[in-house]
Design brief:
disordered N terminus, disordered C terminus, alpha+beta, about 650 residues, seven-stranded antiparallel β-sheet, five-stranded antiparallel β-sheet
Length: about 650
């Protein structure tokens, strides 16, 4: 058979089948295979297709369809080949099967490019946003064009743009529902390595995500999950972890996330001594892991990956320390100053340097810049500090490239979300624009999140902690937390806390610029601010009477008088309780109130405090000299003024 005859056969089949396809690589298969079989066995990684409930990959053949508006010309759309389809998913209910090729959504064909996966998801979301109740989709099956429709069951992605996105709330809670079902009896979550270290990291991150929904340890849809997370974190965060095979960097991340979770949890349980003790011990554990050069991280082999990645762990540790301070746990300032110097030495023009090698993949560097900037915000650095501004601007310019990087993508996207939400306003709007289609596309129909498929990703070694943590729970916890940040139920993480403490402000060198430091212990007792009164535990009845007048219940008073959480195992020092006048919530502690991208100043507390100025509270303070007798950490626990009745002292 000559060439002209072969061409005639193909054209004839095209007329009968409605489509002509040509292989773009390799040796052409038979005409029948070209028309009916789009699955390429060489493709082994499949993209998730969001709430459609399937996975697929870009077609490896060129598709030619007859143009209905011009029979003499053809159309060349892109296509997504379906590979795995959920039984009860929208595509499963529509009768789709592996090998079907999706080529059109509504009135739009998929663009003919290397990977139109996000375009497919974007077209589907566009139909929802246009108010469609059903979405029309065109597929190719056995070389024939077939149209079907699926019902819309999700809110529009643009609803409430950009600050109150209902679709993000829905997706975030679906992720938490998956985590709730995946949680083990001991409170932890499975990881690929299932080491105690990796499970501590993922459990702490999941705990933060549960808190971001507005649930607490005692209230809300995920209260039981938060309580289980706390039990596991409390048992594992303070002491050296039994297994050290995960490496030092993984341990630093695990303890950092544990401290972040405990700090945010303490903000919801202001009279819980159990949480306070765990928080203080975890802080001491993290500080003990800091290197002499100021960084946290990769141990004795920092270049095991071929480039320096020490800043990742240091960013996370510094962010956690800032959150602990906002929860009224304070240590010496020197570790913070050393950490800031460590980060600055590895940063240039806002870019956190990974490797000075020509051609090195730098797409993740914007994520590292986000982590460093969020850490500086956490310790009280002003948005207008010149160094912080460089980090923020670099992330703003190149943040959207993070998703195409080859390592730690969930971590970099989460840190970008944290930074953008810390800044607020237009910054969060830009995060929404850059990542909205990707985030809803990564979520599977069961609520979990899939990994991003990037060319060449598997060829490059993963980061140490990424090899340990990899799994559905890690990705789902990180992405769910990012989606729920808009609700601001994690105020310490977002630097929007309104507690009684006058939080320190610092420059990017870590030097304190303003703010009242927590009370400190001396050999003669506590040095207290002007206007405060202390009460000795030697006269508990006098103290009980005072606290009852201020509106505390008997359980809270009993816990305070027993010294629980301050004299237990692993802690030494002394305890004092005092009343103290403090600045109202809209004082200088609110931070960068003149930043147009940040939230407006908080209003004065008009709660049950009596005089409405939010200036009277109770402070429980203790030292833990187990960290360093010469410079003990101070734990300061406070009760909101709005929860107390006025008392003249």
């Amino acid at each position: 058979m000559n060439v002209k005859t072969i061409a005639g056969v193909v054209i004839l089949l095209a007329v009968v089948g409605g489509a002509i396809v040509w292989k773009t690589r390799g040796t052409p298969a038979t005409t029948q295979a070209l028309v009916t079989d789009y699955i390429d066995s060489q493709v082994t990684e499949f993209h998730n297709l969001g709430w459609l409930g399937a996975t697929g990959h870009p077609t490896t053949v060129t598709i030619r369809l007859e143009d209905p508006d011009n029979p003499r010309s053809s159309l060349n759309p892109g296509g997504i080949v379906l590979r795995e389809i959920g039984e009860w998913s929208p595509l499963g209910d529509a009768g789709c099967r592996p090998g079907d090729v999706l080529v059109k959504v509504g009135e739009s064909y998929l663009p003919n490019k290397e990977d139109p996966t996000l375009d497919l998801i974007g077209l589907v979301e566009g139909e929802i946003s246009a108010g469609k109740q059903e979405i029309a989709i065109v597929r190719l099956r056995d070389g024939k064009v077939d149209e079907f429709s699926i019902p819309v069951t999700m809110p529009a992605l643009e609803a409430g743009y950009p600050l109150d996105i209902q679709r993000f709330k829905t997706a975030g809670r679906q992720g938490l529902a998956f985590l709730s079902n995946a949680q083990r009896d001991d409170g932890s979550f499975d990881t690929d390595s299932n080491s105690a270290t990796s499970r501590l990291a993922v459990t702490s991150l999941a705990g933060l995500a549960f808190l971001a929904s507005g649930s607490t340890r005692s209230d809300g849809d995920f209260a039981a999950n938060i309580d289980l997370c706390f039990e596991f974190v409390e048992a594992n965060a303070a002491a050296p972890l039994e297994d050290d095979s995960a490496g030092e960097q993984t341990s630093v991340f695990a303890v950092s996330y544990a401290l972040m979770f405990l700090a945010e949890l303490s903000n919801t349980q202001r009279m819980n001594m159990e949480v306070m003790q765990a928080l203080g011990q975890c802080m001491g554990r993290l500080l003990s892991l800091q290197h002499e050069d100021g960084g946290w991280g990769l141990g004795d082999d920092p270049d095991s990956l071929g480039y320096s990645d020490l800043t990742l762990a240091t960013n996370q540790a510094l962010m956690a320390i800032g959150m602990a301070e906002r929860a009224n746990v304070s240590g010496p300032n020197e570790p913070i100053e050393k950490a800031c110097a460590f980060i600055k030495a590895r940063t240039g023009d806002g870019r956190v340097v990974t490797a000075n090698v020509a051609g090195f993949d730098r797409r993740s560097e914007a994520g590292r810049s986000a982590g460093a900037a969020a850490a500086l915000k956490s310790i009280g650095c002003s948005r207008y500090d010149s160094f912080l501004t460089q980090l923020v601007d670099y992330n703003a310019r190149l943040g959207k490239e993070i998703a195409t990087g080859r390592s730690a993508v969930p971590l970099h996207i989460l840190n970008t979300a944290i930074l953008r939400r810390q800044i607020g306003g237009g910054s969060w709007g830009r995060f929404f624009e850059e990542f909205r289609i990707l985030l809803v596309g990564l979520q599977r129909y069961d609520g979990s999140f899939a990994s991003i498929v990037n060319p060449g990703r598997l060829a490059q070694g993963k980061l140490e902690f990424e090899r340990q943590w990899a799994g559905d729970a890690w990705r789902t916890a990180g992405y769910s937390l990012a989606l729920l940040l808009q609700e601001e139920h994690v105020p310490l993480l977002l630097c929007k806390s309104d507690g009684l403490a006058s939080h320190k402000t610092r420059d990017s060198d870590g030097h304190t610029t303003s703010g009242e430091a927590p009370p400190t212990m001396t050999a003669g007792g506590m040095q207290m601010p002007h206007g405060a009164m202390s009460f000795s535990l030697d006269n508990p009845e006098e103290l009980r009477e005072m606290l009852e007048k201020m509106g505390m219940d008997s359980d809270q008073i009993d816990a305070m008088l027993s010294g629980e959480g301050f004299s237990g195992e692993g802690m030494s020092g002394s305890v004092q309780i005092m009343t103290i006048d403090v600045p109202p919530p809209d004082s200088a502690e609110a931070g960068d109130e003149d930043d147009e991208d940040e939230s407006p100043p908080a209003q004065k507390d008009e709660g049950a405090g009596g005089d409405g100025d939010g200036r009277r509270g109770v402070v429980i303070a203790a030292t833990d000299s187990s960290y360093s007798p010469s410079s003990p950490m101070t734990l300061r626990y406070q009760i909101r003024a709005s929860s107390l009745r006025p008392l003249c002292v």
